[in-house]
Write a structure and sequence with these properties.
The protein is an alpha/beta fold and 386 residues long. Helices cover 32% and strands 20% of the residues. It contains 13 helices and 14 strands. Helix 1 crosses helix 11, helix 9 packs parallel to helix 11 and helix 10 runs antiparallel to helix 11. It starts with a strand and ends with a helix.
């Protein structure tokens, strides 16, 4: 019985990609800059090879037992959707549209008519800043706040006492159905919040409404083979609820790590795919390197427990989906390599996986480990781990 635990540390990039300048991200290095600025203690990831990955700058003199490397993104993009899809074997060949000037007025009029409410905002903005700017007006006039970012997203923020989460999700489903073709953003995101003017805060009831994957994914292949395909955190949203046998939409890193540990204690054959979002949403987008470093340390502390729960035949892979350099002046994602750390019980050597030419090598590796024939047009590194 084989189990694969694939964990994405959201936005924990490992240095600028060769084409970073084309995305406005020359010099980005999420891990390297956070490590240099905050000196987080990450002994468990270091023991798997973190410091051996180019550009991280993590100093570690102890032994290394694990496989380490990095991967370059082929897909057009630097966001959650393109990153996770490519990790799961699907490359995005046409970039999702972005709206630096907001969404077309003609669309917004149609959308407002469809939901029965006037909207405010409709511009790129930080999620916390726009609540400070427009939250009071939203409460006074009952106007949903629409905004976007440097990513392909249509975000809707509503106060939970004014529009309960289920109503906000209705607004999002309407937008998802309308945003197709040239307006086909990667994700429509529900951003519920609470509080009063001057002290608004977002809640854990966020939901993402993604485009369905544009190809066959690792979770689909695992499910169709009759094995468990488990999603933890926002995985179900990223894959539009496709290819999963069960899911725990836990909110925030502590809850997601608790959920992952619970699944590690159960008997199953297949894949457990986890997203840990706080490094991205709570710290990366808010330019908070200290908080980012703290989130890495919190994961590293739990990693020792997780490794102890692995059984013979299990595989653990830790990676990321893009960067979001909190030491950069921008609050947007950054086009970076992603780190790869891999470990299987009994592994007692250091294995250099090099620089992989696509994130999809991770999907190929997971598939081979589980005995599937699918390779997603990529190169597995499973044999190097045995």
């Amino acid at each position: 019985m084989s189990r694969v635990f694939l964990t994405v540390l959201d936005a924990v990039g490992a240095g600028e990609a060769p084409d970073a300048a084309e995305y406005g991200d020359a010099g980005a290095n999420t891990l390297g800059h956070v490590i240099a600025a905050c000196s987080p203690k990450l002994p468990n990831m270091a023991a798997m090879g973190l410091g051996n990955i180019s550009s991280t700058g993590y100093r570690w003199d102890g032994p290394v037992a694990g496989a380490w490397g990095r991967a370059r993104e082929v897909s057009k993009g630097k966001d959650t959707t393109s990153g996770h899809w490519e990790i799961a074997g699907v490359r995005v060949t046409q970039a999702f549209p972005v709206f630096p000037d907001g969404f077309p007025e003609s669309f917004m009029k149609e959308y407002e008519k469809a939901i029965g409410h006037k909207c405010i905002g409709n511009k790129p903005a930080s999620g916390t800043v726009i609540l400070e700017e427009l939250g009071e007006q939203h409460l006074r006039d009952h106007t949903p706040i629409v905004y976007t970012s440097g990513d392909s997203v249509f975000q809707i923020a509503c106060h939970e006492e004014l529009f309960p989460p289920e109503k906000l999700y209705e607004f999002c489903r309407t937008a998802r159905a309308m945003l197709q073709g040239e307006l086909g953003v990667g994700r429509v995101i529900a951003r519920p919040f609470v509080g009063k003017p001057g002290s608004f805060s977002r809640t854990g009831n966020r939901r993402d409404f993604s485009m369905p994957p544009c190809g066959r994914t690792l979770p689909q292949a695992v499910k169709e083979a009759g094995m468990e395909s488990i999603g933890v955190g926002k995985i179900e949203d990223i894959f539009a609820h496709e290819g999963l046998t069960q899911s725990d939409h836990a909110a925030g890193n502590p809850a997601c790590m608790d959920s992952l540990v619970r699944f590690m204690k159960t008997d199953f054959e297949g894949l457990c795919f986890t997203n840990l979002v706080d490094t991205d949403s709570v710290y990366g987008h808010r330019n908070d390197p200290e908080g980012f470093a703290g989130a890495l340390e919190a994961f590293d502390r739990r990693l020792e427990e997780m490794k102890g729960l692995l059984r013979p035949g299990d595989l653990m892979i830790i990676t990321a989906d893009h960067g979001c350099d909190p030491c950069d002046i921008s609050t947007d994602h950054t086009r970076e390599y992603i780190p790869i750390l891999a470990y299987t019980p009994g592994m007692n050597r250091s294995v250099d996986l090099g620089t992989r030419s696509t994130f999809a090598d991770i999907a190929a590796t997971c598939a081979e480990w589980l005995g599937l024939e699918e390779r997603f047009g990529a190169a597995s590194f499973a044999e190097a781990l045995r």
